[in-house]
Design a protein that fits this description.
- The chain is α+β, with helices and mostly antiparallel strands.
- The protein contains six helices and 13 strands.
- Strand 3 and strand 4 form a beta hairpin.
- The chain is elongated.
């Protein structure tokens, strides 16, 4: 890896500012001042900037209990971003593994490992995602039986070219629905209930695959264990 890129990866410096720091003699490699930005760094080289040792940030895997009014997006917008709640070096590199709407709460995964993220989100992996939805209208009796059957069979959503994958619907009260999906289409939970003439007034994601929020409070986060990461291999 080039030295200027290494500095940009391990500090808050841009590559342009990294070059200026090198020209000022602030960067050393194995104890020697290096001013050439194209110098290549080996994995065992010791790099320091202004006397501080630098090290590359490895791949990170994070679980976040997302509150409402927080966006799962890379760009800054109306609301704070999910990544803004995570106190890690270079946290801005973390990307949401599947998104939740700003008004939806619950489990969000963040990582800078694109291949791992694909394994979690790919419909071919059939990774279960469990949601709790508060419905505007009561769902019970014959209407509930029909909804359970329809969700289990899969059906076409407006604007889609393929039917939804089979999903499991369980009611915990006339307005409290638990829905398990194995894919992640745009606004899927809300659109599925809208398709049966209902409306979701509140939505919360409880789990993704074997991961659940546990005791993690809203706004809190933690890094996943090695075993938890491997569970999606």
């Amino acid at each position: 890896m080039r030295l200027d890129r290494f500095l940009a990866e391990t500090t808050e410096l841009t590559r342009s500012l990294a070059k200026k720091a090198m020209h000022r003699g602030e960067v050393t490699v194995n104890g020697a001042v290096v001013k050439q930005s194209a110098t290549h760094i080996a994995s065992d080289d010791r790099v320091e900037w202004a006397g501080q040792p630098l090290a590359l940030v490895g791949l990170r895997y994070v679980m976040l209990h997302k509150p409402a009014d927080v966006e799962c997006t890379a760009r800054r917008g109306l609301y704070p971003r999910a990544v803004d709640l995570v106190d890690l070096p270079k946290a801005e590199r973390l990307q949401p593994v599947g998104r939740l709407d700003a008004d939806t709460t619950g489990l969000v995964l963040l990582t800078d490992d694109g291949q791992w993220a694909h394994r979690v989100t790919s419909p071919r992996k059939r990774c279960a995602k469990v949601y709790r939805a508060t419905l505007a209208e009561a769902l019970q009796g014959e209407a509930l039986a029909e909804a359970v059957s329809r969700f289990a069979e899969g059906f076409m959503l407006e604007g889609e070219e393929k039917p939804t994958l089979p999903a499991q619907l369980v009611m915990h009260g006339s307005h409290d629905a638990e829905l398990t999906l194995y894919e992640g289409r745009y606004h899927q939970v809300k659109r599925m209930f809208a398709a049966i003439g209902n409306h979701v007034t509140a939505l919360h994601r409880e789990s993704i695959g074997p991961l659940s929020l546990g005791t993690l409070a809203q706004g809190e986060w933690r890094e996943l264990s090695v075993d938890e990461v491997a569970a999606f291999s």
